[in-house]
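Suppose you are handed only two things: the residues of a chain and a line of SMILES describing zinc ion. What would the bound structure be? This form records exactly that question and the answer produced for it, so the two can be stored side by side and reused later without any lookup.

QUESTION INPUTS
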Amino acid sequence: MIDDEHPIEFNIAYHPSPYPHGMREDLKEIGEVCDGIYLPVAESDLAYASNKIKYCIDIAHELNLVVIADFWGYGNLFACGAIPSLFTLQHPEHNCIDSHGKAVPKSCPNNPAVRAFLKDAIEEFIVKYAPDGFFWDEPQWGLSGYLGALEPGAWICRCPCCIEGFKARFGHDMPATLTADVETFRTESMLSFLSELCNYVKAVDENLITSTCVMPGDSLAFKEAAGKTENLDILGIDPYWRPDDPLSQKAYIELHTGEAVRIVRENGKLVESWVCAWHLTAGHEADAYRAAKRMAALDIDYLSAWSYRDYLSWTPCDMRNAADPERVWKLLRRAYHEIRAGDLDIHV
Ligand SMILES: [Zn+2]
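ANSWER OUTPUT
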């Protein structure tokens, strides 16, 4: 609930323009309503467009915006638009093996070399770009569509590291089927991976923010455990409601954001709720406004939206926006202004 002592902080995900002038204009506009940005950074951005990232962080800091770096799709382990990981491509020896024995284009989070890659990337990013924190978006065993699909009935991971880790944890060989023990192992593995990343960030600089986002469809066990992650500051949830959902937007947000709030309050962390402001349905531009208002009425600490100007700022620039991106952004700004003023009523 918004109040004077504990105001909600507002953020938006921003895919930077390659042109510093345009970037500055965007960030000025964002700074009128937001406290910070989530900056998606793909491995290829740093390999081939690192100045874009540097300019963005420097300009955002000039404008007093907090910058949280989102290691977008690193190792194909986190949410990402459609940019495959270079590390995964270059190091297939560290990739997951599915239950049918096939290699999968995802670096295994139980492989020490994968964890070392991410820790090196974190340290290098801190030294070169000075962000205010790191975001681990939807850490998952699932495979994004642009990377292909697992065969029916297949699951990951049965690579040598996972097989060895499972035996050490349970005292017997890893079964070839997705048993309850395997599910537990997968949950524990992803959380151990997340903890190691958060611990590493804090070890480099304890003042850096650590944030993650779980998905509504993740198991309750995973969400509950994520809420206890060592050295994690912010647990986020992204109830991206769409008009074809059987629940109303209000019921959907209250269910999932409410659950995240309960989990976080039991663990003394901060909670963030993500507004769906991407790929909105034509004629549904006000959905982002309403989602922001409904989330702000719950006991959240951070209200963030993905992303700036709907699809205009997203990777597939040749993809036509179904909704009007200018109207989505205009209405989202209005929601942020009204919430700051303490107005949680829905006017649109
Ligand atoms: Zn593995």
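WHAT STANDS OUT: The chain has a mean pLDDT of 95. The beta strands are 9-13, 36-41, 66-71, 95-97, 103-107, 133-137, 209-214, 234-237, 270-276, 302-306.
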